[in-house]
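Field notebook, page 154. I keep forgetting to write these up properly, so this time I am using the form the group agreed on. The chain and the ligand, iron/sulfur cluster, are recorded exactly as supplied. Prediction of the bound pose follows.
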Amino acid sequence: MLKYTDSSVVFQEIPDEVTLAVNLSGCPCRCPGCHSKHLWTDTGNELTDSEVDRLLDQHKGHVTCLAIMGGDAAPAEVDGIFARLRTRRQGIRTAWYSGRSLLAKDMDLNHLDYLKLGPYLAHLGPLKKPTTNQRLYRVRGGTLEDLTPQFWRK
Ligand code: SF4
């Protein structure tokens, strides 16, 4: 079961999108520099399709993208959320922030418009640092375009 602790509308996590970011709990990644250790525990409310719709409806006509932050313990469930959202709301783009270096085999790129990969390593910094190990990709036709350098110009 996917659970989330909170959600918010953000403007910088995905370039050129107004994004509803939903933070999942139960993170298994244990990044050494983690700034969100409260997300390691199994806590929060269940993230169902109807809950996704309820959150999106709160920002109808404003939000252009749904980003699920985390879910590495159950990528198949995250994939299912995106797959079903694609059929219900074709105008909403999808983004997944994974803390893994490689894409989970249970995530179908056809269900994603954006993908962030990489654990947070404090000595390398976040996406906005040119030294970062993390990458933010645009997904098009199953291929990945690295958008990470866009974060360094801001
Ligand atoms: S992916 Fe890493 S930084 Fe993000 S919540 Fe999990 S352990 Fe923390």
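OBSERVATIONS:
- The two ends are 37 Å apart (CA to CA).
- The pocket of iron/sulfur cluster is lined by residues 27, 29-31, 34, 36, 39, 70, 99, 119-120 (CB under 6 Å).
FOLLOW-UP: compare against the apo run.
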